[in-house]
Design goal:
By secondary structure, the protein is of the alpha/beta class. The protein has helices at about 90-105, 165-185, 225-235, 290-305, 320-325, 340-355, 365-370, 390-400, 410-425; strands at about 5-10, 15, 20-25, 25-30, 40-45, 50-60, 115-120, 130-135, 145-150, 155-160, 195-205, 210-215, 240-250, 260-265, 270-275, 275-280, 310-315, 335-340, 360-365, 380, 405-410, 425-435, 445-450. The model has no long low-confidence stretch (mean pLDDT about 95).
């Protein structure tokens, strides 16, 4: 068995997020994008003494668990929804198993309770935000608007049938692509650095049905977008388009960057409701992509926080202040810290909108801002980015010595790493709750309650 060989084996088990393991000639080999029980064909791309990796080429036989029909005709092409062939209950079981496997070796307390996973209220059409890319389906093919093909930086898979978004969004994608093709203008080619159309950003509020549409282009052409506005206004939608925007982006990176946004129609924001509170959302502001799932997640965090009367709460990595504002009505004071200034501005505006006067939101790095805050917390809520918490920031958090910490994690591998120093400092894990915010995909959120051990 050598590098480049094609091998056929059965997947023995998987780990978070979607890495499977097979055994060939007595060696364990990892292969991404597979499910337990699948018979697969893969190419051995690394065969080291310590580590062997394979690249999936074909699923020869489905797993016995795969009894669902994919809702998306492009299943397997874009790679975003790798679990569609599993019934939703089986998806939940697999995710719960992954989190247990990852965290159990780390957690030291025998009193820790792993609570049953909570599913999303909607398994499909749950995303309130999607970013689509212009490109071609294949080299020199027709212009396409959709998602990147799996394992490709250039080829685009159509998103007109994407099962994760509302029908309104699919209609908008189809209308924008049709209009873009009629203009005769080219999409942006990364290799040559020339072209016009780059991305389409669509946000649709779950509760209010309000929609923002933002087309992103380079500045290489001056173009009148009135035709686009007219096309979108003619669509028969369940919701309502409240804003159509044009964002300029000349960055060489394949990301949406705001080099200036103009309003072509309506306004540049909409409002969404979450657990009785109202939040203003702009094109680029952070907000959980699954509104109904976010209510499940934040309700769980609120339950873990427990009694808050007359207590000061630190909401660290606070984003637009969603968690802090949900705790504020029953707390003495909430202080949120977030490094993205736009999110902090939105948090302050949302607090005013919701009539909350005991919230303070600060812009800056948690590591630095904790040195400037004079209040001392009674409870700390942590909702860090995917990379987790900086070790020096974690030390400052530990030094407050609060009785309870609630950690909300979007990447359980980072959570597992951070739990080690927290336990070393005298905290024990009491509750673990997995919440599925991303049905059909391998990703999942985890909420952990930690308490300081009383001596």
């Amino acid at each position: 068995m050598k590098k480049g060989d094609f091998i056929e084996e059965v997947v023995e088990y998987t780990t978070f997020p979607d890495k499977g393991y097979v055994y060939a000639e007595g060696k364990k080999i990892s292969v991404k994008g597979v499910l337990p029980g699948q018979e697969i064909r893969f190419r051995l791309k690394r065969n080291g003494a310590e580590k062997a990796e394979g690249e999936l080429k074909e699923v020869l036989k489905r797993s016995p668990e795969e009894t669902a029909c994919p809702a998306c005709p492009n299943f397997g092409l874009c790679g975003g929804c790798s679990l569609q062939t599993l019934p939703y209950e089986a998806q939940l079981s697999l995710k719960e198993e992954h989190i247990r496997k990852l965290l159990m070796p780390v957690i030291r307390s025998e009193e820790c309770h792993f609570l049953p996973i909570k599913g999303s209220p909607k398994a499909y059409e749950y995303r309130n935000k999607m970013e689509f890319s212009f490109g071609d389906a294949y080299k020199d093919g027709p212009m396409m608007l959709g998602l990147h093909r799996k394992n490709s930086m250039y080829d685009i898979v159509s998103a007109e049938d994407c099962a994760l978004v509302h029908e309104d969004v699919r209609k908008i994608v189809a209308a924008v692509l049709s209009w873009a093709r009629e203009t005769g203008l080219p999409f942006y080619h990364r290799m040559g650095g020339n072209g016009f159309f780059r991305h389409l950003l669509v946000r649709r509020a779950e509760k209010t049905g309000k929609i923002l549409v933002d087309i992103v282009s380079t500045t290489q052409v001056e173009y009148d977008f009135s035709g686009l506005v007219s096309s979108l206004q003619k669509l028969a939608l369940e919701g309502k388009i409240v804003g159509i925007l044009h964002t300029r982006n000349d960055s060489v990176a394949d990301v949406i960057r705001d080099d200036g946004t103009e309003v072509l129609y309506g306004v540049d924001f909409f409002t969404e409701e979450l657990l009785g509170l109202e939040f203003r959302i702009s094109p680029f502001s952070f907000f959980q992509t699954n509104s109904l799932g976010a209510e499940v997640l934040y309700s769980t965090a609120r339950d873990f926080v427990g009694e808050t009367k007359d207590r000061v709460i630190f909401d660290l990595y606070s984003g637009t202040g969603t968690i802090g504002q949900m705790l504020a009505p029953v707390a003495k004071k909430v202080i949120g810290i977030e490094i993205i200034e736009e999110a902090v501005i939105a948090a302050r505006e949302n607090a005013v909108r919701n009539g909350l006067t005991n919230c303070t939101f600060l812009a800056g790095d948690v590591l630095k801002m904790l040195d400037e805050v004079t209040d001392r917390p009674d409870i700390i809520v942590l909702d860090p980015p995917r990379d987790g918490i900086h070790p020096k920031a974690l030390t400052k958090i530990i030094d407050y010595g609060v009785d309870n910490l609630v950690y909300i994690s979007c990447k359980p591998t980072s959570l597992a790493r951070d739990l080690v120093p927290l336990q070393d400092a005298g905290y024990e894990v009491r509750l673990v709750q997995t919440v599925d915010m991303f049905p059909q995909t391998a990703h999942v959120e985890t909420v952990v309650l930690m308490s300081r051990v009383k001596e």
